């Protein structure tokens, strides 16, 4: 600590250059944090997928429905523990297309049993079972539209019009939270029996099934049995692990991980050059001073540590400020809940960022530090003369 003032004095020598270097590092790590949050937003469904859950959909396309009766047939297949159906409703609030969100008719008890990641208070669950028009909504969605339990919400759907062509009316009886931070809490779930009786067409049809298998090691075997059960029928199926199903949506956008690595590699390579050049210039400008320090008894190792500490301090100040700003920017939730329902800076990625800060300080400072360590006193003082 006694050399901290010396290091700080060296950094203040060229205030503008040091400030600009730190600012560039701040920007780089803010970008790192936001891109990691964006990656989490797109891959949250993949991360939350159950290893023992399968998705059964129409073989041709997800937009084609399956019969409601498939549920009982799937549950009779050896290795299947339970099956629940989902249907995409595409609810729109206040007849504003921008106010769309994920909405699904389900059977409450089987649905909640299949998906423990959705946490609903017991009294709210019971209310849902007792209220035919009841719905439970995610915390994020409730905050987005300022809904509260007891509110009556009208929705329209371009896919599923109501039989009398009126808006669908739902009573909010519960607000669910996520068991984990990566759980999507922007959904709207309501009762299938109310939906099936009131829709204008498609009675007895569902979108897809989520199936839990008894043994996660046998998911491939069970998936094949399910598809064999409905082979050569009017509604053939395609069964795949839930993670693969979610990954398919992500891949429609592109390889998020590869794009993230490519962008950040370019950014950090540029920052490496900027910070490395700053340190190299600082050492060259202080050649005579380094020679004086060595003449006063500073060892080569101590000179190396001083220069390296200076580099690490610049990287730490810029990097930690950048990571902190990225965390603050994502702490308030998603800027676009309808598109990115899950949006936060994951702790593992934050720890990786801290490791990159340390690595950046060492890499940008090691060569100037070695140069300073090898500097001969006579050569340094001769320049001064």
TrEMBL record:
<feature type="domain" description="ABC3 transporter permease C-terminal">
    <location>
        <begin position="263"/>
        <end position="376"/>
    </location>
</feature>
<dbReference type="Pfam" id="PF02687">
    <property type="entry name" value="FtsX"/>
</dbReference>
<dbReference type="Pfam" id="PF12704">
    <property type="entry name" value="MacB_PCD"/>
</dbReference>
<protein>
    <submittedName>
        <fullName>FtsX-like permease family protein</fullName>
    </submittedName>
</protein>
<dbReference type="InterPro" id="IPR025857">
    <property type="entry name" value="MacB_PCD"/>
</dbReference>
<feature type="transmembrane region" description="Helical">
    <location>
        <begin position="301"/>
        <end position="330"/>
    </location>
</feature>
<keyword id="KW-1133">Transmembrane helix</keyword>
<keyword id="KW-1003">Cell membrane</keyword>
<dbReference type="InterPro" id="IPR051125">
    <property type="entry name" value="ABC-4/HrtB_transporter"/>
</dbReference>
<keyword id="KW-0472">Membrane</keyword>
<feature type="transmembrane region" description="Helical">
    <location>
        <begin position="350"/>
        <end position="373"/>
    </location>
</feature>
<keyword id="KW-0812">Transmembrane</keyword>
<feature type="transmembrane region" description="Helical">
    <location>
        <begin position="256"/>
        <end position="280"/>
    </location>
</feature>
<dbReference type="InterPro" id="IPR003838">
    <property type="entry name" value="ABC3_permease_C"/>
</dbReference>
<dbReference type="GO" id="GO:0005886">
    <property type="term" value="C:plasma membrane"/>
</dbReference>
<feature type="domain" description="MacB-like periplasmic core">
    <location>
        <begin position="18"/>
        <end position="228"/>
    </location>
</feature>
């Amino acid at each position: 600590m006694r050399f901290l003032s010396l290091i700080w004095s060296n950094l203040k020598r060229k205030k503008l250059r040091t400030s600009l270097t730190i600012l560039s590092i701040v920007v780089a790590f803010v970008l790192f944090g936001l891109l990691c949050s964006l990656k989490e937003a797109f891959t949250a469904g993949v991360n939350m997928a159950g290893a023992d859950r399968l998705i059964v959909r129409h073989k041709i396309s997800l937009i084609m429905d399956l019969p409601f009766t498939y549920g009982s047939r799937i549950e009779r297949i050896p290795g299947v523990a339970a099956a629940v159906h989902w249907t995409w409703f595409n609810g729109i609030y206040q007849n504003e297309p921008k106010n769309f969100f994920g909405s699904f008719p389900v059977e409450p008890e089987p649905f909640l049993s299949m998906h423990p990641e959705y946490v609903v208070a017991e009294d709210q669950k019971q209310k849902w079972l007792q209220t035919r028009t009841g719905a439970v909504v995610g915390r994020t969605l409730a905050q987005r539209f300022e809904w509260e339990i007891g509110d009556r919400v009208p929705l329209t759907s371009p896919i599923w019009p109501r039989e009398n062509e009126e808006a669908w009316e739902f009573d909010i009886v519960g607000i669910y939270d996520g068991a984990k931070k990566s759980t999507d809490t922007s959904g709207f779930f309501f009762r299938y029996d109310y939906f099936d009786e009131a829709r204008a067409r498609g009675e007895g049809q569902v979108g897809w099934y989520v199936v839990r298998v008894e043994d996660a090691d046998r998911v491939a075997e069970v998936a094949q049995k399910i598809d064999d059960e409905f082979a050569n029928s009017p509604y053939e199926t395609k069964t795949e692990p839930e993670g693969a199903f979610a990954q398919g949506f992500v891949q429609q956008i592109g390889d998020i991980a590869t794009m993230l690595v490519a962008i950040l590699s370019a950014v950090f390579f540029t920052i490496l050059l900027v910070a490395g050049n700053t340190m190299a210039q600082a050492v060259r400008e202080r050649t005579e001073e380094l020679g004086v320090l060595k003449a006063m008894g500073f060892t080569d190792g101590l000179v190396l540590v001083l220069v390296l500490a200076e580099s690490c301090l610049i990287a730490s100040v810029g990097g930690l400020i950048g990571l902190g700003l990225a965390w603050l920017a994502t702490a308030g939730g998603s800027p676009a809940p309808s598109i990115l329902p899950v949006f936060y800076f994951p702790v593992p990625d934050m720890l990786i960022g801290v490791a990159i800060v340390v690595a950046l300080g060492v890499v940008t400072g090691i060569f100037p530090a070695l140069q300073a360590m090898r500097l001969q006193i006579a050569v340094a003082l001769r320049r001064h003369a």
